[in-house]
């Protein structure tokens, strides 16, 4: 099987995709690696040139200065059509059986080719309009363009892969897609390709965690959106109840004034370097719980990364998270308006019962080992691709 991997950027170059703020570019490189690990040959079609910069720059200035609104060039239909023309030329130089678009709908919205097309995304952009911060103040032109190019891409696709039941339900709601055309595949951890440790190793990691202090790990770049303020209050509540607790903050440096004595701010860690990756894995492995009381999200990959180390997750019951987290199996989900005590009592229950905690932690690892890893994802994806080609 040979697949054309259609991205606007160079999916093989981490220094390229890591510069982007929009989209889950890291996961896209792991998707490629997972498919190659299944013996699938990939033809990388990116990078593509973004045309019409003179036009899109003018529109950006127009909406920015006259209406204080956001215009996105990546959603412009002229840009999408330019991407399609470039992909068509590159496809003529390949023998690909299938085209996969892991970045989203815009590169393939106007693509005409003989190969079946598969779009593989967290969720369709339509569901994120007025939900994610970067899509709340967009101009009407960008809003219309998003729905237009996504509909064009959907009509061209033989299959759409999303990461959660929530994403599937909303795709059907927004575009009236036949549910049989959509497959739900949770992603793996963006820290390794396949299950890289045994149950015995996971048990060692869990056993190495001390009874006290309780270590909560918050990992996120967007402090407010990811609920960092709630994480601080949970740690504060636990300490007030006599449960010695520390909160480790990765990914950002919040301006806490004063800085609580139980908080340690590590900040951003570059996991593309060997030293950064080791440091990140050490912090994750040493935590008793990952705490991510996120207010706006799809299906955060950090939850899966925590489970890979036998770390249960404390998070919110929103969007695609219920596809990743199973209640009292690999963590717990709480309502957006849940009181701090709800988180605190859950943690306290397990910190006072070591055997129960270790069982929860190993159950979390088993979820990763059997369901939430790139090897399992790659195998399932290959199965679906074979079905398309047989048809």
Fold and architecture overview:
The protein has 391 residues and is α/β, with parallel strands linked by helices. It has 14 helices and 12 strands. The strands form 2 sheets. It has a 6-stranded parallel beta sheet. Strands 9-8-7-10-11-12 form a 6-stranded parallel beta sheet, with helices on both faces. β7, α8 (228-240) and β8 form a beta-alpha-beta unit. α2 packs across α14, α7 (199-208) runs antiparallel to α13 and α8 (228-240) crosses α12. Residues 17-23 have low confidence and may be disordered.
List the helices and strands and how they pair.
Layout: E1 2-5, H1 14-17, H2 25-37, E2 41-44, H3 53-67, H4 77-91, E3 98-101, E4 117-120, H5 140-156, E5 157-162, H6 165-175, E6 182-184, H7 199-208, E7 214-219, H8 228-240, E8 245-250, E9 263-267, H9 274-286, E10 289-292, H10 301-307, E11 313-316, H11 321-324, E12 331-334, H12 340-351, H13 354-370, H14 374-390
Parallel strand pairs: 1-2, 1-3, 3-4, 4-5, 5-6, 7-8, 7-10, 8-9, 10-11, 11-12
Helix pairs in contact: 2-14, 7-13, 8-12, 10-13
Which key features would you list for this structure?
single chain; 391 residues; alpha/beta; 6-stranded parallel sheet; 12 strands; 14% strand; globular
In whole angstroms, how far apart are the ends?
A: 15 Å
Order of helices and strands: EHHEHHEEHEHEHEHEEHEHEHEHHH
Q: Which outline best applies? A: globular
Strand coverage percent: 5-15%
Number of helices: 14
Summarize the main sheet.
6 strands, parallel
Helix content: 40-55%
* Tally of DSSP β-strands: 12
What is the arithmetic mean of pLDDT? 94
CA gyration radius, whole angstroms: 22 Å
**What is the structural class?**
alpha/beta
Low-confidence segments, given as residue ranges, are 17-23
Name the strands of the widest sheet in spatial order. 2-1-3-4-5-6
């Amino acid at each position: 099987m040979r697949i054309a991997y259609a991205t606007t950027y160079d999916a093989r170059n981490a220094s390229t995709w890591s510069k982007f703020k929009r989209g889950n570019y890291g996961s896209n490189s792991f998707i490629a690696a997972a498919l190659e690990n299944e013996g699938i040959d990939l033809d990388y079609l990116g990078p593509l040139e973004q045309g019409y910069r003179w036009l899109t720059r003018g529109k950006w200035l127009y909406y920015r200065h006259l209406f204080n609104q956001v215009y996105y060039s990546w959603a412009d239909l002229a840009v999408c059509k330019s991407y399609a023309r470039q992909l068509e030329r590159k496809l003529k130089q390949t023998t690909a059986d299938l085209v996969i678009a892991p970045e989203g709908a815009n590169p393939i919205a106007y693509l005409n080719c003989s190969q079946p097309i598969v779009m593989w995304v967290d969720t369709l952009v339509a569901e994120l309009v007025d939900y994610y911060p970067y899509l709340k103040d967009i101009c009407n032109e960008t809003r219309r363009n998003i729905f237009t190019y996504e509909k064009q891409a959907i009509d061209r696709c033989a299959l759409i892969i999303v990461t959660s039941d929530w994403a599937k339900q909303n795709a059907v709601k927004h575009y009236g897609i036949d549910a049989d055309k959509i497959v739900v595949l949770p992603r793996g951890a963006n820290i390794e390709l396949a299950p890289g440790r045994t149950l015995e190793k996971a048990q060692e990691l869990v056993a190495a965690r001390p009874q006290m202090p309780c270590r909560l790990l918050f990992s996120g770049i967007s402090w407010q959106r990811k609920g960092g303020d709630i994480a601080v209050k949970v740690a504060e509540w636990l300490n007030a109840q006599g449960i010695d607790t520390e909160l480790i903050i990765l990914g950002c440096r919040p301006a806490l004034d004063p800085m609580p004595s139980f908080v340690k701010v590590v900040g951003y860690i570059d996991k593309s370097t060997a030293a950064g990756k080791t440091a990140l894995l050490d912090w994750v492995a040493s935590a008793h719980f990952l705490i991510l009381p996120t207010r706006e999200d799809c299906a955060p990959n950090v939850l899966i990364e925590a489970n890979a180390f036998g770390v249960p997750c404390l998070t919110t019951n929103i969007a695609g998270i219920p596809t990743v987290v199973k209640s009292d199996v690999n963590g717990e989900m709480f309502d957006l308006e849940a009181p701090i005590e709800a988180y605190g009592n859950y943690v306290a229950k397990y910190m006072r019962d070591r055997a129960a905690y270790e069982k929860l932690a190993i159950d979390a690892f088993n979820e990763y080992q059997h369901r939430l890893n790139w090897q399992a994802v790659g195998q399932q994806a290959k199965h679906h691709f074979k079905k398309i080609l047989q048809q």
